[in-house]
Amino acid sequence: MFEVHLEKPFRFSRGSYRMAPLIQEARSLKAGDLSQQESKNLAQTNMKVTTDKFSSERTAMESQQQRQTVTASGFYNQEKHSSSTSHIYTSSSSKGLSTSAKINATRQFHLLNGTPEEAILNTSLEDLESLSATSDVHDIERAKHKYSTYLDESIRCLQKLDQNKDAPLVLDKINDVMRKAWAVPTYGHELGYALCNALRNSGGLDLIMQNCTKSDKSLQFASAKLLEQCLTAENRAHVVEHGLDKVVNVACVCTKISNSVDHSRVGTGILEHLFKHSEETCSDVVRLGGLDALLFECRKSDVETLRHCAGALANLSLYGGAENQEAMIKRKVPMWLFPLAFHTDDNIKYYACLAITVLVANPEIEAEVLQSGTLGLVEPFVTTHNPSEFAKSNLAHAHGQSKTWLKNLVPVLSSKREEASNLAAFHFCMEAGIKKQQGNTNMFSEIGAIESLKKVASCPNAVASKYAAQALRLIGEEVPHKLSQQVPLWSVEDVEEWVKQIGFPEVSISFVESRVDGDLLLQLTEENLRDDIGLTNGIKRKRFTRELQQLKKMADYTSRDTSNINNFLQSMGLEFSIYTYSFLNAGLDKKDYLRNISEDQLLSECGISNSIHRLRIMEGIRQLENGLANGMNEDNQDKSLDVFVSYRRSNGSQLASLLKVHLQLRGFSVFIDVERLEAGKFDNNLLQSIQKAKHFLLVLTPNALERCIGDIERKDWVHREICAALSANCNIIPSSTTSSSLNSNSCRKI
């Protein structure tokens, strides 16, 4: 009997009392002189009181389970289990869900499944696996509640088990729950975060960090695996505050376990997450050996490990700040990014490209980054991939990046390097689609990305502007006036828009009044800016001239440049593009006309006041006159390149790129072609590079020479490279992964 007292009257429904019948179950098994008997008795009484606001239920359950094994000589084994009583109180919430004490479900669960650890290990995850993008919101909430409770029980169980042999199994089971939660389409991000919070709040994160220092290797690794799955922003902050050194140490230990792919994946995965916290944390992780461990793992061939490496280096580039970017340069990270960006896996390639573009956006280290050659791999990626399709290609970025991560990427949009701006715009386009699906497009205005996207969308950079405009449309923002890359064809309105974009709105009216179009813009002199436009301030004129020169480098001159004069000038350096329009206007629109030009004409007719530039252009013209025929003459050869790397594109790219890195780290200059040439299309640049090389490194992966056999016309490009190396008297060095790769018969038939 019980009483209920409330201050306000309420409707009290009739209580109920029920006694369930006695349930008996018996089983027996006999084989020879061995017999086994089991019996179960279950009796239950139930009393329940219900109102509009709550229900209270008391259950008395009496249970007895007996199992005995009998042999001819007597009892061999006998087991007995009995009983449980529980009380459950349920109140209704505003969402229509219920919150209840966990005692009843837990005790009944243990009664049916044995010990607590057995109950945890035997839990079915079918309901979690069945969740999909079309699941009801209430199903997601129920899953959150159920598995948060499950994690709470699991951690309590682990705290009691301590060094028990079942502890790694329980940790693996929790890890399985976390993986399946993250993998739920659409809701995985929300569900995974909820369970990660539950793990931290239950003391699980602290327990895992403690296990990282234990001597039991299986317990340590099981804890590290789980840790790698639950390092959300809040959990990273908790780790940094309470045990960063322990976690970095266990990650480095994992990477040092030779011949274990699983350990490498976990170690690099943890480091990838830790580099997403703060600049100070990045410095600590680098100091504790995290960056060195990552770079060593870049030599591995496992795809998932390399994905973590590429992601970690991208995160360090974004979060590390100038000091850590300098540390990356000292450790030759741009060179190690080359084999990652050269990989056949798109995910590895993408984040390696992202890392190199973030680094090159820092003017202080731009020169060192350019030396690695990795930046040249960015453009082929962004022009051959679709952001929305790429977003769906891997779970790692299917849920998108965090607000802080994206905020750190915003400055890269405005980089003077086209490659950096292009890839940043590509990523924001991908994120716009993801955030739209999540209903979280307001994030872009919160991080200040809208204005940067609008500026890029209207700039003459064709690739970056396309992706920025797509991103703006996806998040419901207005797309600004688009400027073509064909600057000579700009209208007066286009010029006015560009002048405003670069920060000179006060003189834009002067450009309109003077009717300055694209053709006139490219011919403006400093005197025009001062006397006709009204830019009397010398510093402002220099700023304007700098922007104009940047525009000239980016411009597309194909409407006037039918003989590729711009390509000729760019072969001496990107900065020589500023003279392209002067050449074209002076009548030098054919390469044949170049051979008769003098240095004085370059000064007077083309307006090239820089005497060093005039000398370099004259040298370039002389080389153009000599042509490739003279270049094949050994006496005229300039062996300025140490090594040319030849490889079969279908299966030799990774080995070739690693050889390139190791040679560069030892001070050799190396050329490796990054294009996928079609049969019969042999680039003259390749031929020139082979002629300049002292050594020809031939990467012999399996079947690398098969296409050379019977190739009388030399259509195969590896065949042509070998023949060119022989003609240029290069020192040919075969390099193979296995001895069987070097087939003497194939070599004789070339």
Automatic annotation (TrEMBL):
One of its GO terms (biological process) is negative regulation of MyD88-independent toll-like receptor signaling pathway. Keywords: Cytoplasm, Hydrolase, Immunity, Innate immunity, NAD, Repeat. One of its GO terms (cellular component) is cell body. CDD domains: SAM_SARM1-like_repeat1, SARM1_N. Its main location: cytoplasm. Residues 639-750 form the TIR domain. The keyword Magnesium does not apply. SUPFAM superfamilies: ARM repeat, SAM/Pointed domain, Toll/Interleukin receptor TIR domain. Residues 490-554, 560-627 form the SAM domain. GO terms for molecular function: NAD+ nucleosidase activity; NAD+ nucleosidase activity, cyclic ADP-ribose generating; signaling adaptor activity. It is found in: Cytoplasm. InterPro entries: ARM-like, ARM-type_fold, SAM, SAM/pointed_sf, SARM1, TIR_dom, Toll_tir_struct_dom_sf. The keyword NAD applies. Belongs to the SARM1 family. This is ADP-ribosyl cyclase/cyclic ADP-ribose hydrolase.
